[in-house]
Write a structure and sequence with these properties.
Beta-galactosidase, Chain A, domain 5; single chain; mainly beta
Length: 306
């Protein structure tokens, strides 16, 4: 376990156990690195870098995008800052560039906390606590949020890890997504409908190579096992080595992104696998939007196995 200062991503906390090592950063409470037996599985970033392409970030109180940053909740209209100005959207929530504080730490686990203040466009006060831990079973993230306001608050949650198998290109990566449909999107990457995917180019219900597919796709109608767990798998077609991203029953969607709009060396270098509680634009549509009651606590968990 160690802490060190860094110019751009803030203080760093590393946790280790059974050959698994993860590094968390103060800025955004971000998962900056994750390795198993010295092999990096997360396409993270350096301590002196700003998180590229939202790498490793927590996306809350909404994931993905809100059209025009404008929404209505319980009879009131709200306007968020347009943090994706080129597409005139509000993107990825309000906590991914904030400074998180250390709440608890041990050799194999660290808990980071951020108090989200009420503000223009989102006038609710929330406290987020994220416990990161590593073990022989992999990396686990346990997320808790408390509504400290006197009114109901709209809520959605996601995370944004980029993953890559050593020596395997995105084209050669074998992908499996337990889904039956996908969200159709316009040129602003906002939902305009849904479609079944059986037998189409987006059908990854059985493992197959990504090939030259360009993915920035929200998958829905996802499957869960008997324990209420859903999982997306990335595999090496030659060695059979796998990376599995799993999530509990609170997550209803998977976003898979093949990195085609990233610049330089990060272009199609890794695959972002993002469990989401709700689809894009849910603050406007209300689809699978979570309503946090005053004083109530909401929690969930997800993780990575290799």
């Amino acid at each position: 376990m160690s802490a060190e200062s860094a110019a751009r991503s803030g203080e760093q906390w590393s946790i280790e156990a059974n050959g698994h090592r993860a590094v968390l950063a103060e800025v955004g409470g971000t998962l900056r690195a994750y390795s198993v037996d010295g092999v990096e599985l997360l396409d993270g970033f350096g301590t002196d870098e700003i998180s590229p392409g939202s790498a490793g970030q927590i996306l809350a109180p909404w994931p993905n995008r809100i059209r025009d940053g404008k929404y209505r909740f319980e009879g009131e209209e709200y306007q968020l800052a347009l943090t994706e100005p080129a597409r005139h959207n509000a993107i990825h929530g309000l906590v991914n560039w904030a400074s998180w504080r250390l709440a608890e730490q041990s050799a194999d686990a660290v808990t980071l906390e951020y108090a989200l203040p009420a503000q223009v466009g989102y006038p609710w006060s929330l406290v987020l606590r994220t416990r990161w831990s590593v073990s022989a079973g992999g990396l686990k993230c346990e997320q808790e949020v408390v509504n400290n306001s006197e009114a109901n608050a709209p809520w959605g949650y996601s995370v944004h890890p980029y993953l890559r198998l050593p020596g395997v290109t995105v084209d050669d990566t074998v992908l499996q997504v337990p889904a039956k449909s996908r969200i159709l999107a316009d040129n602003r990457l906002l939902p305009i409908g849904a479609a079944k995917i059986a037998g189409t180019e987006f059908d990854y219900s059985e493992p197959r190579r990504i090939g030259n597919a360009v993915l920035d796709t929200t998958f829905g109608d996802i499957d869960f096992d008997a324990d209420g767990i859903t999982a997306v798998t990335l595999a090496d077609p030659n060695s059979g080595r796998q990376i599995v991203v799993w999530a509990d029953e609170k997550f209803r969607y998977w976003q898979v992104y093949s990195g085609d709009t990233l610049n330089g060396e990060r272009f199609r270098r890794s695959v972002a696998v993002e469990p989401m509680t709700c689809p894009p634009d849910s603050f406007r549509t209300g689809r699978d939007l979570i309503v946090l009651e005053p004083g109530k606590t909401w929690n969930t968990s997800w993780g990575i196995r290799a």
